[in-house]
Design a protein that fits this description.
One of its GO terms (cellular component) is membrane. It is found in: Membrane. The protein has 477 residues and is mostly helical. It is built from 24 helices and two strands. The longest helix has 34 residues. It is globular. 45% of the residues are buried.
Length: 477
Amino acid sequence: MKLQWSLFLTLLILPFSSHSSSINSELTLTNSTVGYTALIIFAIAYALVMLEEYLQLRKSKPVLLAAGIIWAMLGYVYSQNGQIDVAKAALDHNLLEYAELLLFLLVAMTYINAMEERRLFDALQAWMVGKGFSFRSLFWLTGILAFFISPIADNLTTALLMCAVVMKVAGDNSRFINIACINIVIAANAGGAFSPFGDITTLMVWQAGHVSFAQFMPLFIPSVVSYVLPALIMSRFVPNTHPNVVHHNVELKRGARRIVALFILTISTAVAFHAVMHFPPVVGMMMGLAYLQLFGFFLRKTLKASLRKKASIAIEKGDENALKRLGSVVPFDVFRRVSHAEWDTLLFFYGVVMCVGGLSLLGYLGMVSEVMYTQWNPIWANVMVGILSAIVDNIPVMFAVLTMDPSMSMGNWLLVTLTAGVGGSLLSIGSAAGVALMGAAHGKYTFFGHLKWMPVIALGYAASIGVHLMLNKGLFT
């Protein structure tokens, strides 16, 4: 049986030079059984990812398995041809790419979870609910907040926060929940397109060094257009009536505002490491994690004194509710916040990076790059990237583009950043924000409910590209 398996893997392997981002190989596997098998495995894995809502199978599981199988086949083939060092070098390269992004995202998610634990997001939600907004006002407010929060808090976290507000005030109004969630997804993806912190794809482009921190700003107006145009049309279908809601006061936990300040300092540190010392931004982010750890230590050490002071004030006022809240206070723990990171997303990202890296070593990305970025106009290639990102998800599409590493102007690198970000809004499965909201608003925000509005979203997508080409034409030279 082992002999038959060995023969199966080594059949149809023809020598040639395949493309990889920084690795040159003497093997070509694009027309081999191994190559075709890898493509089929990746396609099946991604089909399972797209069906996550229906199968209730976490999206990380199929891609992790696919990555392991693909690299197992590559390791076997390259060892049989005496070139295992080539495969190992490619594997190390992809692992390093993932490690930098993993640590960066882990710190960002830890800060977001710390803010959530300190009830910052609950306070924002309570404020919005307590204002008594109409459905139409709520539609615009959640969209605008999603647009401006996502550049800092990332589009996934922002979308979930705004969805929680919509779900709380809309009750059983499924029609409003669906259209409001579509609006939130569009806004969060658009807002994330002009910031390195707004989406994993923009973070990848920034860390790869193709676009500096300040150079993302020309995408601001195109991003606004990609959100506002669909929102203007959709808002006409939102009733101007008021929902029935119950307002609850939310008290921020100790240190909440200071954690926001530390997060801003952390971002500044990451930018400084990248811009001044030309180190990966992750070095600055890990230093920022130390800020949060030291502040957590301070909160723990001063907790007893703070509780005594608040207890004495509550006793003087006769506030029994305040005393009960003080009795339920637990010390701030950074590592508990780390454990609350979105690990399924982080592991999914690992699977994607390793699968795409394997396909690159097989030579498929070189073939695609040759067609899209040599035979086509780069502008049309980047427009197609946005459309593909709606079908396949923008993370693997952008990682594939970065692995191809085509020679493009700054205008085109900004264009592909824009299209990969806002193109993911065309379908509900095209971005992490859309997939997450299908789970958070299960049965009320659906794939087909989003699909109904795709022509309107596509209008905003096309308009944002046109605005970018017009306003930033000097960057395409």
